[in-house]
Input
Amino acid sequence: MSEPGDIATLLAAVLGDDGGPVTPPIVQSSLFTFDSYRDFEDRMAGRTDTAIYTRVQNPTVAAFEGLMAKAEVGEAAVGFASGMAAISSTLLAFVQPGDKVACVEHVYPDTFRLMERMLRPFGIETAYYPPSRFEDDPDLLEGAKVAYLESPSSVVFQPLNLRRVAEHAQRHGTLTMIDNSWASPVFQRPITSGIDIVLHSASKYISGHSDTVAGVVVSSHANIARIRDLTLPLLGAKLAPFEAFLLTRGLRTLSIRMRQHEATANLFVDRLATLPQVRRINSPGANEVPGLTGRSGLMSVEFDDSVDIPRLSDALKHFRLGVSWGGFESLILPAGVALAQAGEQNSLQKFGVSPQLVRLSFGLEDAEDLWADFEAALTKSVT
Ligand SMILES: *Cc1c(COP(=O)(O)O)cnc(C)c1O
Output
């Protein structure tokens, strides 16, 4: 498939040629009425496809879904109330008791919990493998209904050769799903590598403004129709019109924001690499795997034991302590804090993430200001 081009150009072209507003109106209506018995009957029988009820269809949501399908080079898209709603509603539309899921290790922690705490008791078994197994073992996916992927993975950001995984999956008839929140369609369009279904936490880069929690799924007409037939109406975790409006607004600046996040991340990768306290930098960049065209602004760094992580976290001024990422503001998430999440064995422990690891999300602040802040805080926290 040919490269689809810059997202900003692509999406501006979707405005339409018929004049009128350049942004979609917010259609804040729960239901839509009909002119006549005949129109109503035609719609209910599926002969027309206008909106009936906002749990399943809404014009503002549809405008966002249309843009996402274009951005990810899919045939269709469906919005959800959160990234987790998109992930759970997609998995549940395609798996049944007895099915096996092959999942990349270091998956987003709540996705791991979905697999373990909800799908496993329903008789759906998930096994976790490193990227190298997905790439190099052509028979790994034998008998697997779904391959659930992230590239790069969460926390340690291991990238995956999606083209190779898609080839193996096609041979075994395994459905491939990827959480593409990290790269966004600006830096990676997995459908062009042969992946079947692309999922997003739209709360992150797609929103970009830390004011929305939402999700979206992009795939073929047939796959999206299945989700629209089953889990969208029956679990009901729909995207709301106002959130969809904010996400459309976010998409307008996605490519320029991603370039700024990348420039800052590149600067940090170069300079962190020169520091003696840095054990490891987890931050895949352009062309590290086929189809990945940029470095996003979310990475992790593992320091040696001379760095006091709580002191580093408290000394930073521009990096706030918090979860989530992908907004205008820079954030630090120490692994030790994530590990302390109460009451269960989570994926970080299971896969041995060091408490000396911190995740950084670079916002849109000036890169030199961020580096100066980071360097000063690090100096204060080396023991
Ligand atoms: C945040 C996140 C999710 C979950 O999305 P929500 O919108 O918070 O439900 C899923 N995957 C990744 C990689 C995330 O960072």
